[in-house]
Specification:
disordered C terminus; alpha+beta; 23% strand; five-stranded antiparallel beta sheet
């Protein structure tokens, strides 16, 4: 009879193990799965209570323990900390083997760890103890099943084998659940990626439609300057089809004298800088020169590396022609107004001259009286000369020359032009090393400095470096051999060898309708009027392009009327 009962109990246990395996395979969430495994183990081994401690990995990759209980309320364990990797628990959490003890309190591994040296006060009594690691096929310990009873020698070998079977089934179910979650996650990621690709394709299609329908030329190039895209507007403006232009250097569209611009542009793009509304000139297939406005942005790949540039180019030739016509009309109108003003101002002294000459002729027999009339006529002629000089801007200011620091004047000019340099992307360097006083007319020399700085800024439309320096100098051509030199140096486009000899000529300009051709002519007159000289060096070579303008002034002004400066350096 005993054997039959034992066989029946064994059969029921085996059936429970099979049913548990089937049940574990159906559960789709971890808490339900581990609870079912814990309950089944408790029923198989006859323990008073059991627990399943299992590892969980959170979103940050951190691992921590959770647990389920069977046979006892959760409140009984709420005030106790999680088990630590002590000598009793280590074999289970490290996966080195099953621990079964008839009386754990007499086990040599028990009671060696502070602070309790055994079970903490209030803990349910534990004598019989069974702990089975739940271990994946890879060897990873997923958790552990723990069972206990207050009586000794409750758990036998057959019970250990059954709980080990439950642990193995739980490990398989947990691994399958993890794989399902991973596959589900990958499936969701794949769906998101597909949706992202569809959205990206839609956006790219919309952008492509906008690019193709734009009235502005839109093109791109790589960092070697090879053209990689070309819209319909670009083909219409320049006359090159896509087939003709793709893979060709962008230099094909740039006039030879402006090739240096491309080096500057590519340098800015490599540095991650944008270029907005840069006005320049480009060439069509027929050789026509177009005034254009460029906006250029870096193009980056998926990793953020700059691989090229995109350009939006607007043909502003019509706008430039309209501006030139308007400027020409304004010049004509201004000339008319000036002519009327001059005629009015000159008419009075000319009438007086005619009257005085008539009176001088009428009194020819009286030399003294005739001379007086002629002297008066000479004064009126001087008035006419004065008006003409004022009109052309050549008239010298009336203030007497005084001792002034050229460095202070340069610093004042720098303060005025610094915001404009910053807006134009021009770096400003100053080396104002002279403290000497120079006898000069402040207004005239300030006009000279301002003109040189303005010309330098205009020569650097794509940005660059402007260096202004003032140094003491020894020059045998100057009175007493000493003076001060002011230098304005730019890294701009430079002045060609053909144009360089003419830059001080009246009405000669390299700036088209914008320039008057008067600035440097007047500057030269002012500097030479102070007994100084003005010098220029320039290069259009791509490696050394730029211009350096220098004015050299003596310490003493040869003009009469110099007065003592505030610090008493001059008499």
């Amino acid at each position: 009879m005993i054997d039959e009962r034992e066989q029946s109990r064994t059969q029921r246990n085996l059936e429970l193990v099979v049913q548990t395996g089937q049940l574990l395979a159906k559960h789709l969430d971890l808490p339900t799965l581990v609870q079912a495994a814990t309950d089944a183990g408790l029923q198989l081994c006859g323990a008073q209570f059991g627990a399943f401690f299992y590892n969980v990995i959170d979103a940050t990759g951190e691992s921590y323990l959770l647990y389920t209980l069977s046979g006892v309320d959760r409140e009984k364990f709420a005030q106790f900390p999680m088990p630590r990797n002590t000598a009793v628990f280590a074999p289970t959490f490290e996966g080195t083997g099953i621990v079964r003890s008839g009386d754990i309190t007499k086990d040599p591994r028990y009671g060696h760890n502070a602070p309790h040296h055994g079970m903490p006060p209030g803990h349910l009594p534990v004598r019989s103890y069974l702990a089975v690691p739940v271990q994946a096929q890879s060897g990873e310990v997923l958790g552990g099943l723990f069972y206990s009873h207050e009586r000794t020698d409750v758990f036998k070998q057959d019970v250990e084998d059954l709980v080990a079977a439950i642990a193995a089934q739980a490990a398989i179910a947990m691994e399958n659940l993890r794989l399902r979650e991973q596959l589900t996650g990958k499936f969701e990621e794949s769906k998101k990626a597909e949706q992202y690709q569809r959205d990206s394709a839609k956006r790219l299609s919309e952008v492509a439609a906008i690019v193709e329908s734009s009235d502005d030329a839109i093109l791109s190039k790589d960092l070697t300057g090879q053209i990689t895209s070309w819209n319909q507007a670009a083909a219409r403006i320049f006359g090159y089809s896509r087939e003709e232009i793709l893979g060709v250097s962008i230099l094909l569209l740039i006039p030879p004298e402006l090739h240096h611009e491309e080096k500057t542009i590519l340098a800015k793009i490599r540095a991650g800088e944008r270029i907005d509304h840069y006005e320049t000139v480009r060439l069509t297939k027929s050789g026509e020169r177009l005034d254009v406005s460029l906006s250029i942005s870096p193009v980056r790949d998926a990793s953020g590396t700059i691989v090229g540039a995109s350009k939006i180019l607007r043909d502003i030739s019509g706008k430039k022609r309209a501006e030139a016509s308007l400027l020409e009309a304004e010049k004509i109108a201004a000339a008319g107004r000036m002519a009327a003003t001059i005629a009015h101002e000159v008419n009075n002294p000319l009438e007086a001259v005619m009257n005085l000459i008539y009176l001088a002729k009428s009194n020819a027999e009286n030399p003294d009286e005739a001379r007086a009339f002629l002297d008066a006529a000479e004064g009126e002629v001087a008035r006419v000369s004065h008006i003409a000089k004022q009109t052309l801007g050549f008239y010298r200011e009336n203030d007497s020359a005084i001792g002034t620091s050229l460095s202070e004047l340069a610093a004042q000019a720098i303060r005025v032009y610094s915001p404009k340099c910053k807006a134009a992307g021009i770096g400003l360097e100053e080396n104002l090393n002279s403290t000497r006083q120079v006898v000069l007319r402040r207004g005239e020399i300030m006009q000279v400095i301002s003109n040189l700085i303005a010309n330098a800024i205009y020569a650097m439309p794509a940005g660059g470096t402007l260096t202004i320096s003032v140094e003491d100098v020894k020059d045998l051509d100057l009175p007493n051999g000493c003076g001060v030199v002011l230098t304005v140096k730019d890294s701009g486009v430079g002045i060609s060898d053909e144009q360089l000899p003419r830059i001080f000529d009246a009405f000669f300009t390299t700036r088209g309708a914008i320039g008057t051709g008067i600035g440097l002519f007047v500057a030269k007159q002012f500097v030479e009027g102070h007994g100084g000289k003005i010098c220029v060096e320039s290069s259009t070579d791509p490696a050394t392009h730029g211009t350096k303008m220098s004015i050299v002034l003596p310490l003493e002004n040869p003009h009469p009327g110099s007065q003592k400066s505030d610090n008493g350096f001059f008499d």
